[in-house]
Amino acid sequence: QVQLVESGGGLVQSGGSLRLTCAASGNTDSIYAMGWYRAAPGQQRDLVAHMNFGRSPAYGNSVRGRFTLSRDSAKNTMYLQMNDLKPEDTAVYYCHAGVTVEHMFSDEWGQGTQVTVSS
Q: Which residues, including other chains, have CB under 8 Å from residue 91's CB and lie 6 or more apart?
């Protein structure tokens, strides 16, 4: 079992920055990928940034060049640095982990953290 805990959300003005943190615990050796998705009110959950371990991150079109995904493997923690935030970035941000155990694959999600960008 893997648990994910997000932190770092909040209210920021347009053009500002935030850094989200996702700390993984439990059977962390089973994690092969981590990243972030977001859901605006009434919208589906969309990709923000994601990384298969050992590969370069992939970014959603709307955040490429503004957001940076990084990982501290020693701490089992993933970070999302968000710069030049825009009101359309307002959403609940969810940490995701891809997990594999005995050739079975599953998804784990954090509880979400709210990011609100004011204009």
A: 38, 39, 40, 43, 114, 115
- What span, in angstroms and rounded, lies between the C-alpha atoms of 38 and 53? 21
- Chunked into runs of 10 residues, the chain (119 residues) has average pLDDT values of 96 98 96 97 95 95 97 96 98 97 94 97
